[in-house]
Amino acid sequence: MANIAAKRIKREFKEVMKSEEVAGGAIKLELINDSWTELQGEIAGPSDTPYEGGTFILEIKVPETYPFNPPKIRFVTKIWHPNVSSVTGAICLDILKDQWAAALTLRTVLLSLQALLSAAEPNDPQDAVVAKQYKENPQLFHMTARHWTNVYAGGPASIVEFNQKVQRLLDMGVDEHDARVALSTYDWELERATEQLFS
Amino acid sequence: MTDYFQEMGWRELEDGEQPNHLLHMARFLIDFGMYDDNFTGEWPRLPPPASKESVKNLKEVKIEDENQNCPICLKKFNINDTAKVMPCQHLFHEKCILTWLNQTNSCPFCRHELPTDDEAYEAFKKEKKRSEQRKEDIEALHNSMFS
Ligand SMILES: [Zn+2]
Ligand SMILES: [Zn+2]
């Protein structure tokens, strides 16, 4: 790895550890390997959002050309959000693409991701299905996102009706995550989700 | 119906009053976004490098305050180091900022833009400015007729 990338990550790491956001538990950063090329980030779901109470893990890969190119980041924790793929965790955020600037840091990026959880940008979606639900059925979107936060990120709100529907599909031998994706995609209509899974 | 007119800031014409066609046209242009010629206003990728000329003309300063970082490598400057100054007054190591400007034309700290040698991008910037100006003109026109 180019010298500047590793050196800068080391400096950033120190800065993050001293930051008030880490002290307050809003973000976390951990080293995954000794060559400073892989890190794990963590953000707390912002309050007054369906992600509240959840903890979201991020995979961070630092390219050799960092900070002249952005870090590669995706959600490891599954999340129902218009700008994150519900399948791969890939993120659509301008500063991780053509709006990257070399003075941005892992700290500012983690805070931007946290802000993205508070304010989605459905007109620039990563996941078209989620974005459509967000726009056309905001209430159901909210409940679905809370349900995912509960199941995958340790959020507090268990939604009984959704759990029961997932269980119905599990009883039919469907994989749990597949069942949840199908139900979420078809607005929790069991018949349509079943049809799609068995077609 | 009356409420709708009031809400829109409209009123019914008095007896013998003629409609103000210019005002309607200005409203139409604003409401339907016609003023921008369908100009989307987004450059679809990282803007091109800063022009050779503008990079060559960047000023240098001697660092006097030792508590300042270069925003690219995050290393503290040493006193008496020379740093490059962007027009926005942000300071960088020469090697750091030249590598960045060789890739794209804006300050990595505040996004202040330098000129580029890319004709397409310069044309885009001009068009964007023109469209913003046009929007302001139409709003000014609307406001002057409306008040
Ligand atoms: Zn530097
Ligand atoms: Zn600047």
Description:
The complex is a heterodimer of chains A (199) and B (147). Chain A is of the alpha+beta class and 199 residues long. Chain A has helices spanning 3-18, 20-23, 106-118, 128-136, 138-153, 160-171, 176-185, 190-198; strands at 27-31, 38-44, 55-61, 72-75. In chain A, strands 1-2-3-4 form a four-stranded antiparallel sheet. In chain A, α7 packs across α8 (190-198). Chain B has 147 residues and is mostly helical. In chain B, α2 (21-31) crosses α5. Chain B starts with a helix and ends with a helix. The relative contact order of chain B is 0.17. The interface between A and B is medium-sized, with 15 and 18 residues. One zinc ion binds at residues 86, 88, 90, 107, 109-110, 112 of chain B.
Can you lay out the helices and strands and say which pair or pack?
The complex is a heterodimer of chains A (199) and B (147).
Chain A (H helix, E strand, L loop, with lengths): L2 H16 L1 H4 L3 E5 L6 E7 L10 E7 L10 E4 L30 H13 L9 H9 L1 H16 L6 H12 L4 H10 L4 H9 L1
Antiparallel strand pairs in A: 1-2, 2-3, 3-4
Helix pairs in contact in A: 4-5, 6-7, 7-8
Chain B lengths: L1 H6 L13 H11 L20 H5 L2 E4 L19 E4 L5 E2 L1 H8 L17 H28 L1
Antiparallel strand pairs in B: 1-2, 2-3
Count of DSSP strands of chain A: 4
The neighbouring-strand order within the major sheet of chain A is 1-2-3-4
Rg value of chain A: 18 Å
Dominant shape of chain A: elongated
- Tell me the overall shape of chain B: elongated
- CA radius of gyration of chain B: 25 Å
Which oligomeric state applies?
heterodimer
Order of strands, main sheet of chain B, comes to 1-2-3
Q: Gap between N and C termini of chain A, in Å? A: 48 Å
Structure summary, number of beta strands of chain B: 3
Number of helices of chain A: 8
Uncertain runs of chain B:
34-38
pLDDT under 50 segments of chain A (min length 5)?
A: none
Largest sheet of chain B: 3 strands, antiparallel
Cofactors and ligands: zinc ion
Protein name (chain A): E2 ubiquitin-conjugating enzyme
InterPro entries (chain A): UBA, UBA-like_sf, UBC, UBCD4_UBA, UBQ-conjugating_AS, UBQ-conjugating_enzyme/RWD
Active site (chain A): 92
Family (chain A): Belongs to the ubiquitin-conjugating enzyme family.
